[in-house]
Amino acid sequence: MNETIKADVNSNVSLLKRAYSREKRARKETEEILEEKTLELFAANYELKAANETLLKQQSTLVKNEKLAALGELSAGIAHEINNPLAFIISNINSLEDYCNQFSEITHAAQKVSVSEKYDNEVADNLHKVLDKQDLNYMINDSKLIFEEVKEGLDRVKDIVANLKSFSRTQSSDREDTDVKDCLLSALKIANNKVKYHCKVVKDFDPTPSIYCNKNELTQVFLNIIINAAQAIPKQGTITLTTRCSDDYIIIDISDTGIGIPEEILDSIFNPFFTAKPLGVGTGLGLSVSYGIIKDLSGTISAESTPGAGTTFTILIPNDTRMDDINV
Amino acid sequence: MKGIIFTSLADMVEEHYGLKSWQGMLDACPLATGGSYSSGGIYPDKEIMCLVGQLQQRLDVPLDILLRTFGEYLFECLSKMHHNYVISKASPRDFIMSINDEIHRDIEKLYPGTSFPFLEYINDTDNGLSVIYKSPRKLCFLAEGLIQGVANQYNTDIGIIHSKCMHRGDEHCQMDLTFYE
Ligand code: HEM
Ligand SMILES: Nc1ncnc2c1ncn2[C@@H]1O[C@H](COP(=O)(O)OP(=O)(O)OP(=O)(O)O)[C@@H](O)[C@H]1O
Ligand SMILES: [Mg+2]
Fold it and tell me: Which of A65, A75, A121, A266 gives A164 a disulfide partner, CB atoms 3.0 to 4.6 angstroms apart?
């Protein structure tokens, strides 16, 4: 009897032992699976987060590009609308100036008559009185100034309209094989007066393959950026120009040790008419025009800045600009 | 402290000293969890400290020897759970040098609430390497055992000289390793 109970208990204990070790193995397996899956989830989540971040970035560039494209269309429209009246205003002003010159010649002749003794005294007297009363000499001189100012103003309007047009890139352009370095150097030459007194210029040019583009336009881009850089340097500073090459891009960096660009306006600097400069100093077209030109080359232009320390503009132009031409 | 440290201790005690010892240790410590641990959970440090203290009393061995033994056992469990790390490293040296910046860092990200020692690697020579150990837990003997575990894993010998030790008043611990082929 006792023996059977003992045997029974023993067999139960051994059953429990086997069950326990089975359960333990199962639990180990579960924990291993759990750990592995947790890791996988973690990695997947990490990737998702990174992908999401890239998407958000791309989206914001997309929005920005769309905005600039819309602005381009708008400016092209405005430029066109202004161009026509501007053309006849300029031509009419020129005619008007010619007429005025002739009037003033006639007036001079009349003045001579009014003081000449050769003529009938009463007629000459009347003429003299009229001429005197109107202060014709003053009017003639002032007209000259007025014409000068009007023409200067019209020239500025013409420039702005031309810039607007080039921002919207509606004209075709003459392309040729162009060395980036040449354009940088000629931009420096043109900007010399605005740079040489207070800026040290550092040049660090790696050789780059030539770009198939419009030389003048590319020079214009560099000129705009270099002038901005010089204007951003209040006392003494350095402007650094570098060219480099990656597998796919020619990379041009233009940096300055100037005042920098506050973060809250960094997103707007490529917009047409955006300027932080006082009235009359900037029209806010330099960078928007540059943006248009670089975009035409399928390139990108971007700015990084630390307020108080300086700004770097980076331009990427695909190595083979001819390819797009063929595609088009 | 992550649960796998607890489950590994339980396994070691059960395997070598029997279920009764483990139950006795559990009964002797005030445990918020009642002593049921799972490898993915995070549990209070003081519970593992109490359990290790109990085991030391029962076995009547010095703490450093116990921790070394446990470290060796623990490494087997850790490397089984995370075998990817072992597979991806060609040598024990590569493996050891990846603990701080790769293995521990990964797990830290994955399990908030864990905390890891600061390991630094100096004197990296042909067959030598020194590991600096800093941690408020002062578990440098466990580290020694874990390094012995690495040697076992790669079927080699690693000489370990514990040249500086926080338990001897040094600011941090230093283990000078020699790798034998
Ligand atoms: C696959 C290999 C390894 C894994 C997965 C691993 C993982 C872990 C985990 C999960 C903890 C617990 C941390 C907590 O819960 O707060 C820990 C602690 C620790 N690990 Fe590792 N470890 C590995 C290898 C090593 C090696 C080879 C060493 C040798 C130096 C080491 C040194 C330590 C030490 C000393 C601690 C105790 C905590 C402290 O000192 O503050 N580990 N490890
Ligand atoms: N290098 C720079 N450092 C600091 N601010 C800059 C720099 N370049 C551009 N900016 C900022 O971006 C604005 C827009 O520049 P953009 O060249 O388009 O216009 P502008 O220089 O103001 O006028 P414009 O070029 O038409 O004479 C500037 O007003 C200035 O605030
Ligand atoms: Mg400008």
Answer: A75
